Request: fold
Amino acid sequence: MDTIKDELDRIEGEVDALKRQYDLFFQGNRRSEPVEERRNVEWMVRRVGQRRIINTSDQFRFHGLQSRFYSLSNLWARMIRDLEEGRLARDASGTIVRQPAAEEGPVDPSHLEQVLDQLKIARRDCGLPAGDADIDAIRQTLSERAGEIAKKSGAKKVEFRVSVEGGKPKVKAVMR
Reply:
């Protein structure tokens, strides 16, 4: 039967080996996540955790190894979740790089598209051109204007409303 010191040495070696495997995975040199190796290390940590450790220095060492393993596990899970959700991506060499966060503007893109659709309808109803070139120019203008309005008023969000006044479509801003 192995002594507790031998078990702790084996766990330490396995955690280091698993860390190297995950490093290879995140660098793109390994195709799949080392799930089986991780399960084995987790099983070893749980098994030793169920034993009664009398020597305080062995207890201290085990708790340090256990803490290190679970910290690394949380890091790996977070990185994999970020990969799946698109916050991390692989570059041409396969190495993982952080994606820059999309800067959220003062106007929601889906709201802007709804306003542009309403504006197209209103322009057609008024007999004005509503081609894609016109709408693209209006989209650009509204985005810029929303930034100016938000900066001046201190509003976090700007919404637009479409109305027809005097036979012409008008777009009005509302601060939120």
